[in-house]
Specification:
Helix content is 29%, strand content 27%. By secondary structure, it is an alpha/beta fold. Strands 3, 5, 6, 7, 8, 9, 10, 17 and 18 form a nine-stranded mixed sheet that branches. A six-stranded parallel sheet has the order 13-12-11-14-15-16, with helices on both faces. 41% of the residues are buried.
Amino acid sequence: MSTTTLLVRQDQLATTRLTTTDDTPLAEGQVRVRVESFALTANNITYAALGDMLNYWQFFPTGEVGWGIVPVWGFGTVVQSLHPAVAVGERLYGYWPMASQAVLSPERVNPTGFSDGAPHRAGLHAVYNHYLRTSTDGLYRADNEDVQALLRPLFITSWLIDDFLADQQFFGARRMLLSSASSKTAYGTAFQLAQREGIEVIGLTSPGNVAFCESLGCYHRVVTYDALDTLDGAPPSVYIDFAGSVGLRQRIHAHFTGLTYSCSVGASHVGDLGGAGQLPGPRPVMFFAPAQVKKRHTDWGAQGLNDRLVATWNQFSTAVSAGPQPWLVVQHHAGPQATQALFASVLAGSGDPRAGHIATLLPG
């Protein structure tokens, strides 16, 4: 057997290549998983853009200097097992390499799942190292795997942003400014914030995405980037930055003199990613979802956190799939070349904002 992998040049994300390598025998306690479907979104571009800063390249090392594997969320099936508590045929949800197969070293196995105990992952955050058994996963439904792969990790981030801001009393502000308002994570965040009484949610986007953002029904106002100065800059506001654009961040901090908090979440504009030097107002703070997960795990316990997530996920996943014109339209891409082309397209930021891309490096 062999494994096909998409490699990405770490310092030049548009440079990719496909490799196929023979599989090595499993060691005792390891399992081999066929990676059958995964989502490819701007979130994965953020993983690549921040790969060095937040250690995303370390999850699936290539052994080749300068080349990395972009992590993805999705589903796989165990095809070989040398672990007594993990059976061949089990279906798993988790964090995979962009490859046709993955080898895991299960530890802390329980009825809900296990963690990958590979030595190189020992110092990495537990949220990304955990794999869930779909047979016992409270968020899993067999009829909407695509929606789960596409939106589950993004929505959990969105939910945690909303929860974090509420936990901080919205830093004294009642107006939330969201850049890249058409992105899936921004939409999930707006979906949650719009349910907060007294909170105004303003979506910032490009002219071509205004109608789409307005159709989502969770932004009180949608404003184009070139019309920022039409908004009063004095009222207390929070900026939630999903774009990662230096130029936009500078304009936001300069115009919105009432800014009380600046939260950096994503990097949709990879070519413009980086430091902005000295900015007026609050210093931008990177939002790291696992930190809020850890806090709420302590506050509520594992079951309490899971119950809240299941309830809100069911509400959100139903909303995005409902109606004659659902917000999310799933597109499938099968095979190595199709996945490579899709990565280039997502990196370029092209395509319909309603499209959700599900890929596999397995042949179509």
